Amino acid sequence: HLQLSMVLVVGLGGGTNAGKTTICQRLPNTLPHCHVINQDKYFKTLAEAQLSFPEGDVNWETCPALKMEDLVSDLEQLMENSQLDIIIVEGHLVLNYPPLLRLLHLRIFVKVERELAWTRRLTREYDPPDGPGYFEEVVWPGYQKIVEEVRETVGDVKWLEASDPEVCYQDVEGIIRDVMTSARM
After folding, report:
1. pTM of the model
2. What mean pLDDT is predicted for residues 123-127?
């Protein structure tokens, strides 16, 4: 349980292109003293990532493609030296990394349908860009594996649907507000 004097640390995981980043861009405007850590800022460079995948192509949908230790370290520092009420860590793998999980008070996963993820992905640019078949052969199977792993190994997850971005945003904000309210009681 969250104590009033503690910062609430929220893990917002979910599928690629599920709307996690868009939600997190809005939350600091409506939740007081809220800070967002975006997992995307912790991707390794291509040269660094290639060292983690000596057999072939980099799989950007897995933890070895990220500097997850740095993310955890940055979060711990922020938790210790902060006047914040809420820290949200968002990204497709934030609920799949045990050292990060132990720091989270609240876990939310935004599920996304394949067609919606594909349609949204087509509007984005990636560096490096997706190669032919990357979505079908890597991204979508990787997402399915992430969902399965979270369902089997992570407790107390709030599951949301990405189909309506406004409803999803309101659900995330409402869940966080409810936890903050109950912590003050």
Report:
1. 0.92
2. 86
pLDDT band at 168 (very low <50, low <70, confident <90, very high): very high
Q: 105 with 164: CB under 8 angstroms?
A: no
Phi, psi of 27 (to 5 degrees): -60, -40
CA dist list (Å): 132 to 6, 63, 64, 138, 155? 46, 22, 22, 11, 36
What strands lie across the sheet with 86-90, from one edge to the other? 34-38, 86-90, 8-14, 106-111, 157-161
- pLDDT of 57 higher than 90: no
Show Cβ contacts of residue 81 under 8 Å, excluding neighbours closer than 6 positions: none
The residues carrying an active-site annotation are 40
Report angle CA 70, 139, 51 to the nearest 5 degrees: 45
Give the angle subtended at the CA of 52 by the CAs of 42 and 133, to the nearest 5°.
85
Q: Give the pLDDT band of residue 2 (cuts 50, 70, 90).
A: low
Tokens of 154: 């992570």
Q: Where are the alpha helices (DSSP H) in 31-67?
A: 46-52
pLDDT average, residue stretch 3-31: 89
